[in-house]
Amino acid sequence: MAANFIRIMKTDIRKKAIATGDSFASTYNTVHWAEKGVAFMESRGIFPLTLSSPQMPAINRLGLYSYYSGAITVAGGDAEGHIIRGEKEYHLPREEWEDRLGFMVKEYQNKWSFSKNGAYYARLLHSAGWHTITEPGKDGKQRKASVGSRLPPYLCELIDNYDRLTKDSRTLAGKYLRDVISVWFDTKGRVVTERGVRVRLLSQPTEEDLREQAEQLVSVVNSLYPNVGLDKDRDINVAEIKDPEKKGENVFGGYVSFSLEKLLGFPANGATPVKFDIRIEPRWARKKEKKPSRKTIGGGF
Predict the structure, then answer these.
(1) 245 falls in which pLDDT band (50, 70, 90)?
(2) Are residues 130 and 164 in the same domain?
(3) CA-to-CA distance for 231 and 217, rounded, in angstroms?
(4) CA 227 to CA 222: how far, in whole Å?
(5) Can you give the C-alpha Rg of the chain in angstroms?
(6) Owning domain of residue 59
(7) What is the pLDDT of residues 139-186, one digit of tens each?
(8) What is the rounded distance in angstroms from the CA atom of residue 54 to the CA atom of residue 60?
(9) 173 and 92, same structural domain?
């Protein structure tokens, strides 16, 4: 299977189907609603959905924001999705979604819910392999941290085979993988000190799952931006986390550290997840005052 995929990748990855009308229709329980859904997607020119489809970059970004900071649910006859707001405003490509896909999100409280044609696109993301809630957990939810999650197969395959691709295929794959890093930074990045940034990982049920996710992202960064030079042993931080809701077993969380030196390894152009803001601020040299010894402060004890 892997050898066959690599052979396809070496010819033209643009021909690989991500989702088809049949895979999309299989997410429905009734033929009537399946036919209606397929008709809408065909009216937008979605099928067959491939890496070269004009709509694919917008669909990929919708999947990334839903995965890193939200959820997709396809259970029974219902399909929905949402993106949870973080501490800062995300850079959601809302105009692109509306223009390219005829899709909109609606802001409500602390999240953006899939709104106009949202059920169709929740099902499309499900059929394209994005992590999807298909049945509720014990607490009425099915959290990614409890069950584990991965990027969809088409992105994992691009990551695993990136170095084997032809030059043209690598250029196309790079566009999708840069979006992975950009959305990861946008939703999980946090400036902690003047010395660098921590980008959080999605919590996982086991340490092995978390390290697999972290090493995958480190691999993407190092492939696209070799001057950054992340070290999977030193820059990945993992810790066991107690279940904050006390409704399940502990999970594992962590982050990838980007020192200032590594951040400066990103190229100074628009194809990076970080933007530098140079600030001029004088720092005055101060003479270090010698502290008095303990003997001069009341003689000590």
Answers:
(1) low
(2) no
(3) 11
(4) 8
(5) 23
(6) 12-142
(7) 445 578 888 899 999 999 999 999 888 888 899 999 999 999 999 999
(8) 11
(9) no
Q: Tens digits of per-residue pLDDT, 52-106?
A: 999 999 999 999 999 999 999 998 788 999 999 877 788 999 999 999 999 999 9
For residue 283, the SS3 value is coil
**pLDDT score for 1:** 46
Q: Residues 6 or more apart from 185 whose CB is under 8 A from it?
A: 199, 273, 274
In the chain, the number of structural domains is 2
Q: Distances in Å between the alpha carbon of 266 and those of 138, 146, 173, 176, 221?
A: 43, 34, 18, 17, 9
Task: Report the candidate in 41, 15, 48 with the shortest Cα–Cα distance to residue 123.
Answer: 41
- Could you tell me if 27 and 127 lie in one domain? yes
Instruction: Write down the pTM of the prediction.
Output: 0.86
**59 and 129 inside one domain:** yes
Position 75 in a domain: yes
Beta-strand ranges (E) seen in the chain are 17-19, 49-50, 70-75, 78-84, 105-108, 111-114, 189-193, 196-200, 236-241, 251-259
Structure-token pair, residue 238: 């993992």
**Mean pLDDT, to the nearest integer, of 201-228?**
95
Going by C-alpha positions, the residue among 150, 136, 147, 141 that lies closest to residue 249 is 147
Work out the widest C-alpha separation in the chain, in whole angstroms. Answer: 91
* Per-residue pLDDT band at 243 (split at 50, 70, 90): low
Pull the structure tokens for residue 42: 């065909």
